[in-house]
Amino acid sequence: xxxxxxxxxxxxxxxxxxxxxxxxxxxxxxxxxxxxxxxxxxxxxxxxxxxxxxxxxxxxxxxxxxxxxxxxxxxxxxxxxxxxxxxxxxxxxxxxxxxxxxxxxxxxxxxxxxxxxxxxxxxxxxxxxxxxxxxxxxxxxxxxxxxxxxxxxxxxxxxxxxxxxxxxxxxxxxxxxxxxxxxxxxxxxxxxxxxxxxxxxxxxxxxxxxxxxxxxxxxxxxxxxxxxxxxxxxxxxxxxxxxxxxxxxxxxxxxxxxxxxxxxxxxxxxxxxxxxxxxxxxxxxxxxxx
Length: 290
Ligand SMILES: O=C(O)CCC(=O)C(=O)O
Prior knowledge:
This protein is of the alpha+beta class. It has one domain (5-286): q2cbj1_9rhob like domain (Jelly Rolls). Helices cover 24% and strands 20% of the residues. It has helices spanning 5-14, 25-45, 78-81, 83-89, 92-102, 130-133, 249-254, 283-288, and strands at residues 16-19, 60-62, 72-76, 106-115, 125-128, 141-147, 158-160, 193-195, 202-206, 211-213, 223-230, 256-258. Strands 1, 2, 3, 4, 6, 9, 11 and 12 form an eight-stranded antiparallel beta sheet that branches. The protein has a four-stranded antiparallel beta sheet with strand order 5-10-7-8. It is globular and about 50 Å long. Bound molecules: 2-oxoglutaric acid (AKG). Residues 114, 116, 125, 130, 156, 158, 211, 213, 224, 226, 283 line the site of 2-oxoglutaric acid.
């Protein structure tokens, strides 16, 4: 399946798109079995956690450092962790759509597997723009979400503000001028939309689209796989969760899925604020800052 003209127009106008049950349930089941094994193994490990903020190299981000209450909030870079995750990030149905949304080329940027724990243990993800976390020379970047379980209003679906990708970069810095990973000014939420769907549903949102997610009122973990992709000529302006071209240029170029490597970034007149200073890497810890 590729993308219809009306899908593309919808994405361009609204800054998001939902493709219902794009990934076959058989694939989703395999991934969920793998995740169960990973969680089981990790829960048995019982080692001391000192840094809840996570770093780009930490595999897991937890909700607490007490071994009693600890649960996994995020698996960082799942594509490097297991080839099943890698295969999903290169899934043809996803990449064919991403290629069109990005204008012809695709470089894998980063990925994470987020768990939304039941509301007593986990919280909301506050409104933010991914663009605030990783500014580039142009904004041809998209975030893809794969629902690994059915997701409805009750278990914390992604929520977006339609058309917000065409507005400004909102302020993600607190009064002390620290980057806190959430919008620190008033925004109009009247038009917000929840992106719901059965397992295998895939969401696409533009890097500048304001989004977040509410509480999980169910007794489940709501796994959500998030992949970021960009056009090959979209050059990172800061170090972020992806491969830094200054550190490993070969690996950076190996992230190209469609298109050719280039040393010529495309500059667009895009609104930018550099996400510094940053006290933590994890969005969960950042958003707790005042
Ligand atoms: O896991 C979620 O509910 C949303 C997370 C999100 O928006 C992000 O990590 O950028």
